[in-house]
Structure formats: C-alpha cells, structure tokens
Amino acid sequence: MPEGHTVHRIARQLGRDLVGHRLRVTSPQGRFAAGAERLDGRMLVASRAVGKQLFLEFEGELVLRVHLGLYGAWDLHGRVTPLDDGLAPLASLGAPRVRRAVRVGEGESELAEPAGVDETFPPAPVGQVRVRLLSEETAADLRGPTACEVLDPGAAAAAAARLGPDPAAFDDPVALAAAGEQVVDAVTSRSTAVGALLMDQSVVAGIGNVYRAELLFRARLEPHTPGRRVPREVVRGIWEDWTVLLADGIRTGVMLTREDLDDAGRACALVDRDARHWVYRRAGLPCHVCGTAVQVEDMATRKLYWCPVCQV
Question: Which domain does 279 fall in, by range?
C-alpha cells in the first residue's frame, strides 16, 4: 500500500501541474460518472495529503477524496513538472506529446511507450481508469483506489479529523511537538500491541507496513509490547524519527531507513530496493546488526518483520 510519503508526492505533483487549471473530469470506467460530472469544468484550487489520503479541492466548495488502498495508483501523461528533489523528471517535459508516462503508487516507475509510438495528447484511457483529470497539457488517470468520493468541505474536514497527526502537516516546531504528544498519549493509553497501533491511522497518519517495521527496529522496540507499557520517551522518539523519515521519503520518493549507510551506500540504496531496509522483506535473512534471522508474522492484517534479538 502506498505510504504517506507517496501520497504527499502525488499531492505536490498534482499541485504543480493541475492546480490553477480548469479541468475536464471524466470516468472512463464509468464507476465514478456521477462524481466526475459534479467536478467537470471546475478549477482545481488546492491539492493536499493527510497521511495516506489525498484531498483535491475544486472551486464551488467540492472536494475529491482519494485513498489509493492496496492497489490504487495514478498514471500521469503529458507535461509532468519535476519536483524539487534533485531526481530525474518523472515524465517527459515536452508536452503535449506522449512518449512515456509515470505511475505513482507504491513505487514510482516510468511506463515507457512502445518503440516508435508518438501518440498525440491526450492518450486514450487504457484499462480501468476510475477518474481522469485533464488540463491542456497534463492528464492524471486514477485507477484501483479503495476510496474515491466527492465531499463538501465539512465532510472533507471530518474525514481528515478522523486521522491522527501527520508530521508533514506542520511547519511550526511547537505545533509539531504538540502533535507528537498527541501520538504519545494515544499510544501509551492503549493495551493494543504497539506494532498494531502504528498502523492505526487514527493514532498516527501515514505509517504503513514498511515504515512500521523499520521504525520499530530503529527504536529497538518489541512489536508485541502493549502501548501502555512503552515508555513515553520511546514513543516520542518514534514520532521524531517518523518526522525525519517522512520528510526524506517525500523529498526522494524512496523509503530509505538505514541510517548506517555512508554516502556511497545511500546512493546504492536509492536504486537498489534490497539495500534500503533493516528488516522489511528480509524474513529468514540475518539481521544487519546481530546476525539473527529476521522473523515475519501477521499483525494488523499485514506482514510484520522484526528481529527477536535486537527488538527486546
């Protein structure tokens, strides 16, 4: 499932290329035809993420809420402005021609067009496209989301309020620290295992399976520990760590959680998924720290990876 950093990058990308434009909104698949009709022809005025949820605000006080879930992704075509992260552009900049596209979901990847194809913009929708947002130069196709609905501002605010704090929502250090204390209170007042609490989006927004495993390992915390038995300073440290990891993920588009890497190792890990993590997807392999085989089990409906020696 796309985690918080990916949804923030989607919000920023759509903000760069679609905010301020009056959009043609359609549902090629047909499943969102009524919602698309309500948004069609309106200007997109804001694009923001809260945790794993995207809120696209249109003129006329209408909000498109999207939750990608396990299988959702956005395919972007045409002019796709590079984000300020020092990385290569996500897609070709020379609109309005389509030579390649980009998929933004659990992993960002270029979708190369077949050799010799030089299709005029916009390309015909391919497959089950729930929603297409179309400007003069950019097309954004949403496919496979768990949630896709048009809300009024009050309902959108209520949906966001049900989520726990998201570090990327705070510019003020005082407000960020206060949000962290909210997370500390939520975790330490519950008897639920901390490994499940970190996946509870009402406790803290944006953490998914990868970041859950890695944050717990970095804190050297046993995942089955009841929240009320975790020291407040440990939970506070996890929040502060999440703040740093989320910002790095938003900047690079990569969940890189090993702080032991030098510059060369980090450069390698940015392109090699297997070098990025301490424990995630390393079941049966030796722990990078102690050499014990990394364990895997189900917790909160997802695979939990952890080291039974380092995390005690």
Answer: 167-306
